[in-house]
Amino acid sequence: MTSPRSERRAARAARRADADGSGPTLGDTPRLRNPGAAGAFALFGEVLLVGLLVSLVSLPVLTLPAALAAGVRHLRRYIAADDSRVRFFWQDVRAALLPGLVVGLAAAVATVVLLIDIDLARSGFLPGGPVVGAIGWVGLAAVAVSLLFAASLWSPDLGWRGAIRAIPEAVRGDIAGAFYLLAAAGFVVVVTWMLPPLFVAGIGCAVLAVVSIPSRPRRR
Q1: Residue 173, in any domain of the structure
Q2: Which of 2, 24, 60, 89 has its CA 20 to 30 A from that of 111?
Q3: How many domains, in total, are found in the chain?
Q4: pTM above 0.85, yes or no
Q5: What tens digit of pLDDT does each residue of 108-145 get?
Q6: Which residues of 110-137 are buried (b: 16+ CB within 10 A; e: fewer)?
Q7: Which domain holds residue 135?
Q8: Listed residue (164, 199, 186) closest to 69, CA to CA
Q9: What is 191-207 written as a DSSP string?
Q10: C-alpha span between 1 and 118 (Å, rounded)
Q11: Burial of 89 per CB tally in 10 Å (0-12, 13-18, 19+)
């Protein structure tokens, strides 16, 4: 399996050969697997745009699942060089919003409960505090990864219920990918803690991770 870097290198070589007449014309050049990602600077700009859109939609917090799902679908369209006008992002937001509020509420409640458990474990009031604290951190990681997986799997046809039901199979099929998503979620938390406005860039990078991790080259 060729890597995206090899494909881009081959595409650049083909353009040079076409320009100097020593090789096939561009019409004979194989199509890149992710043609929308060929321009690194343009892709970076689109990631920032997605981060801004997701941040705006997720301001009420409970709308974060719908914002992530719409952002993932938008960036997939852009990377595939499909029609990625912003109006399609808003169409996905409208489709995902109301059912996604239930998912957002469940994630928010679970997060608050786990944070309270971690705080109590640190206070020393609970017996077995270190164990309770560890369980709390594992729970937070599970919530974050599940939310990113659900956003990756959601579509208007599948819906949130189908996306959530598909999470266990998706995790079993790509355990390493689940850890990569956990790292992406941790990155968002760290950069936001350092400087809150960096949440826009961080969440955009997390959406890019959700899109790119499943399609990465893997060893067989």
Answers
A1: yes
A2: 89
A3: 1
A4: no
A5: 999 999 998 888 888 777 677 788 888 889 999 999 99
A6: bbeebeebbeebeeeeeeebeeebeebe
A7: 40-215
A8: 164
A9: HHHH-GGGHHHHHHHHH
A10: 44
A11: buried
